[in-house]
Amino acid sequence: MNIFGTDGIRGKVNQWPMTAELIQKVAISAASIYFGKGGSNLNRVIIGKDTRLSGYMLEPALVAGFASMGMDCLTLGPIPTPGVSRLTRSFRADLGVMISASHNPSEDNGIKLFGPDGLKLSDSMENKISSLVRQEIKLADPSKLGRVKRLEDANDSYIKILKQNFPSSFSLKGIKIALDCANGAGYKAGPALFKSLGAKVYDTGTSPNGLNINLKSGSTYPSKICQMTKKNKAHIGISLDGDADRIIVCDEKGKIIDGDKILAMLGERWKRKKILKGGVIGTLMSNYGLENFFKNNGIKFLRSDVGDRYVKEKMKKNKFNLGGEQSGHIILGKFATTGDGLLVALEILFSLRKTKKASELFNNFKPTPQILENVEVKDKSIINTPKCKKAINEANKIIKNRGRILVRKSGTEPKIRIMSESEDSNLNKLCVNIIKKSIQ
């Protein structure tokens, strides 16, 4: 059985697959494949985490597994997921690991694995690790066990790498930012980055206690940042998720700007600045209005499966340098190998310096009305039952030629995601309810 989902391994802590025992076996299996692959002969793995209480349990499990295979472990403490990706490449490590369940509640956790190139592992490599977990693997001799060291300034190193992508004259002096770090991995790096560039920062979600990550905060709860932005008369609101690899913003009026709107702004700007290569990759969830916007602007647009890993794979295959998801995973291929909320924020702020009006910056396209319902289930295979298939077919017949339906299993949570998209909002409600009823 494959223990990986669409974004690493994820689940409720102390239940399969998120047990210390299994995670240790994953570390041993991954080490058996990637030992010595970093090119530095140091046989090293980089390990970061978000702020969940369970990180204190899972980090030692990973360390024990890697050290038992003779790999040195460099632990970073709480740091955004893209920071792990960046530092894996920077330190020429064999492997990078992030302990996080992203936007999930605190009782969940997960691990995301990065190869020496800073890219998330392919399906084939994840399948290989899954198969090795069930096998006996020879461990290192006692004299060749790995050592463990804590890197105290990891966030500073990450911030330095981010700022190197912009001119040394880049300043945010005079810009007011409302920032929600979701009590997650970006709670240190986020405020420090923007303040170092001269911005006035009004922050929240920067007091993690191990249990409040994503709790009524962050990119999945954007109403909070909208209120803060208006209250403090900020130029823009920035909201990160639990591991800071995704971003949702709001303009100075408190209007939410999702990943599709961000992609539209960046795609049009990059084309104008002759930075864009090939076109833009979205996903099956990307709004139809976004597709039309790119079509009208002569920008090629392709869709991938849902998940930033699949976006990146399609970007690489088609040699595109921009892609992302409606949920806020945006990959700036010119600068990074994975979604990076803080990097995208900098790119947005770089454009915002001139107008200081986020509402003008993101006035790009009118989204086609969408409804997205997440239905919690015990068994996600319910969508393969005759009853559910019949309901999906019925909804597709009703909306035919007037919109589209997408029903899929969540790769990160025990949920079925139902999306209906049409200019007729009542039609969207009808189709979603038909499918929802069959699942419930």
Topology:
Layout: E1 9-12, H1 20-34, E2 44-49, H2 55-68, E3 72-78, H3 81-90, E4 95-99, E5 108-114, H4 123-132, E6 148-150, H5 154-163, E7 176-180, H6 189-196, E8 200-204, H7 223-231, E9 236-240, E10 247-250, E11 256-257, H8 259-272, E12 280-283, H9 288-296, E13 301-304, H10 308-318, E14 322-324, E15 330-332, H11 341-355, H12 358-361, E16 370-376, H13 386-399, E17 403-409, E18 415-422, H14 425-439
Parallel strand pairs: 2-3, 2-4, 3-6, 7-8, 7-9, 12-13, 12-14
Antiparallel strand pairs: 1-5, 4-5, 9-10, 10-11, 14-15, 16-18, 17-18
Instruction: Give the N-to-C terminal Cα separation.
Output: 27 Å
The portion of residues assigned to helices is 25-40%
What general form does the structure show? Answer: globular
Would you tell me the structural class of the helices and strands?
A: alpha/beta
Question: Strand order, biggest sheet?
Answer: 1-5-4-2-3-6
Major beta sheet, specifics? 6 strands, mixed
What gyration radius follows from the Cα positions, in whole Å?
A: 22 Å
Hey, roughly how much beta strand do the residues contain? 15-25%
Describe the fold and architecture.
This protein has 440 residues and is α/β, with parallel strands linked by helices. Helix content is 36%, strand content 20%. The chain contains 14 helices and 18 strands. It has helices at residues 20-34, 55-68, 81-90, 123-132, 154-163, 189-196, 223-231, 259-272, 288-296, 308-318, 341-355, 358-361, 386-399, 425-439; strands at 9-12, 44-49, 72-78, 95-99, 108-114, 148-150, 176-180, 200-204, 236-240, 247-250, 256-257, 280-283, 301-304, 322-324, 330-332, 370-376, 403-409, 415-422. A six-stranded mixed β-sheet has the order 1-5-4-2-3-6, sandwiched between helices. Strands 8-7-9-10-11 form a five-stranded mixed β-sheet, sandwiched between helices. Helix 13 (386-399) packs antiparallel against helix 14. The longest helix has 15 residues, at 20-34. The two termini are 27 Å apart. The mean pLDDT is 95.
